[in-house]
UniProtKB/TrEMBL annotation:
Keywords: Cell membrane, Membrane, Transmembrane, Transmembrane helix, Transport. The lineage of its organism: Bacteria, Bacillati, Actinomycetota, Actinomycetes, Streptosporangiales. This is MFS transporter. GO terms for cellular component: plasma membrane. It comes from Nonomuraea glycinis. InterPro entries: MFS, MFS_dom, MFS_trans_sf, MFS_Transporters, Sugar_transporter_CS.
């Protein structure tokens, strides 16, 4: 094949064939992630701009986590009852309001209330977004579609975080306004360009009882919890372990971590189509196993170079898992309950965000880096085995 034909073929295989509403969702996700500037700098904002102690800032962040736990379950029910589009757009508008409320709060009670509200609404879009992709995209194309959404999130977040660092120097309030505007843009784009896809005529009464009675889904949620506990170490215990334990500077750690975003942006579009043609159960198990190996190897890191090597390993696993988990979720969920199933799926990530720092910090303090990273890798291997054990039941769906 000539060089002139390679590029169009690659573009078609990576980006072609997906419906226009999906690209509206993708574009809105990218815009929203480009504007995600508040959360990476929340701790700095609370201590420097609002003068809170580290303990008080920790309490504020814990309330965000509490709100996030409720968020996924509530948003999952709403996506099935009032619709995917209304839940996503409404959640984004509520997030914009909560962002500005937090930015202008000056007393601790107001900050606590705003932070809990932000946790309640900031990720409310996720169950609706997952359900929308399952509704819009054929089963064969879902791995690629979910992978492209993952790519947009990482591309936007990496740029937004860099720009946020510069804007914070001009004043933290800028971060809240940019984040709020990006949320409104996402809401408007979805409302105007994405049709409502919620199946009509099905019973939608009740809460999560029907989901919890699905043993395969509960088992899959536990597997995803194990996977999420792995990944959550990257922004909870890993920075502390590398800077305080290994002795790397924050600049060295940031340089190594930048490799994660670079690899995802480059490799994800290349890999998603190929991965989508593989058995999703074995593919997800492989991805989790590779991530487990990467985190276990972190026990031996002594330099920036070897940290970068371990990051490259677990990033490879992250790329493999990116579009596959959503694909399996879509297989398991009845169309009229996709919001609830996605809510339980998202709940596992919220639980991991709460448990990961407690688990990681405790292991690091009691047993040192090897206890932390070998245990983390072991959790991943248990999740890998669980995924393979669920394989026959998932394939029967």
């Amino acid at each position: 094949m000539t060089s002139t034909g390679v590029k169009p073929t690659f573009l078609r295989s990576s980006f072609g064939g997906l419906p226009r509403p999906f690209w509206a969702l993708w574009g809105g996700t990218l815009v929203n992630r480009l504007g995600t500037m508040v959360m990476p700098f929340t701790g700095v904002y609370l201590t420097q701009a609002r003068g809170l102690s580290i303990a008080a800032a920790g309490l504020v962040m814990a309330l965000f986590g509490a709100g996030s736990l409720v968020s996924q379950l509530l948003a999952g029910v709403l996506a099935d009852r009032i619709g995917r589009r209304a839940t996503l757009s409404g959640g984004m508008l509520a997030t914009a309001a909560a962002m500005l409320a937090l930015g202008y709060s000056t007393t601790l009670p107001a900050i606590l209330a705003s932070m809990f509200l932000l946790g309640l609404v900031a990720d409310a879009y996720r169950p609706a977004s997952n359900a929308l992709v399952a509704d819009l995209i054929s089963p064969q194309e879902r791995p690629r579609a979910y992978g492209l959404l993952f790519w947009a999130i990482n591309l936007g977040y990496s740029v937004g975080m860099t720009a946020g660092g510069w804007l914070a120097q001009a004043g933290f309030l800028w971060l809240f306004w940019v984040d709020a505007v990006s949320c409104v843009a996402f809401a408007v784009l979805v409302w105007r360009a994405v049709p409502e896809t919620r199946p009509m005529g099905k019973s939608e009464a009740g809460g999560f009882g029907v989901v919890l009675r699905d043993r395969v889904m509960v088992g899959f949620t536990l597997v995803i919890l194990g996977n999420a506990l792995l990944y959550s170490q990257t922004f909870t215990t890993l920075p502390m372990a590398m800077t305080e334990g290994v002795g790397l500077t924050t600049a060295q750690f940031g340089l190594a971590m930048a490799l994660n975003g670079v690899l995802i942006v480059i490799v994800q579009p290349l890999a998603s189509g190929w991965l989508g043609r593989r058995d999703p159960v074995r593919t997800l198990a492989l991805g989790i196993a590779v991530m487990s190996a990467g985190f276990a190897l972190t026990a031996f890191v002594t330099t920036t170079f070897w940290l970068a090597v371990t990051i490259a390993v677990w990033t490879a696993g992250e790329v493999v898992t990116a579009g596959i988990a959503g694909t399996i979720l879509a297989r398991l969920a009845p169309p009229h309950l996709r919001g609830r199933y996605s809510g339980l799926f998202g709940f596992s990530w919220s639980v991991a965000a709460v448990l990961a720092p407690l688990l990681g910090g405790g292991l690091l303090e009691l047993g040192g880096p090897r206890a932390l990273w070998f245990t983390t890798g072991g959790i991943g291997l248990v999740a890998t085995a669980g995924m393979l054990a669920l394989g026959p039941a998932i394939r029967r769906r």
